[in-house]
Design brief:
alpha+beta; Ribosomal Protein S4 Delta 41, Chain A, domain 1; Structural Genomics Hypothetical 15.5 Kd Protein In mrcA-pckA Intergenic Region, Chain A; 3 domains; 9 helices; 5 strands
Amino acid sequence: MSNANPQVKLSRKLNIALTPKASKYMDRRPYPPGEHGPQKIRRGKVSDYKQQLLEKQRLRSQYNIREKQMRNYARKAVRKSGNPADNLVQALESRLDALVYRSGFAQTMPAARQFVSHGHIQVNGRKVDIPSCPISPGDVVAVKTASRKIPAFVSASEELVARPTPPYLERLEDGLSARLTRMPTREEVRVHCEFSKVIEYYAR
């Protein structure tokens, strides 16, 4: 398997699998790019800034969003009442592309973003093509009926049987629709990141 795929290289750098292909590759080579084996991994004290930067990069990569967007989300999370880390989680997780991915309609976050941008996704029965569109509890996210014959969605429908649904989503009977029942907690979101360090990074 080639390491030419940029998502595989980024996954190895951040030590998180961003795609199924990256997960398979990292199972075989669980060390950073540029190294030739686990014995070459450098160890030592990491500065607070470097830890914060790494966690920020991990979070941004897992949601496939630009630096400017992440900065805006973090700043709003701090200004909003409540725990800033919890606020950040909920803002990111209520994005339309994130919920398309969590619902199992796409295998990766970039694919979910593309499906939304190409007009394959509806919210409460109406087409929405903005990946960052915020979804509220009670809203239903669904694959458009005309798009359900596309091979990617046929595969998704078949694979959903074995894929667990997050506790804050309700999968509807037609298979390719899901309702956001409530905002998630940090513990429920399948993201590898220390959210508090991301908040610290943007609070500098």
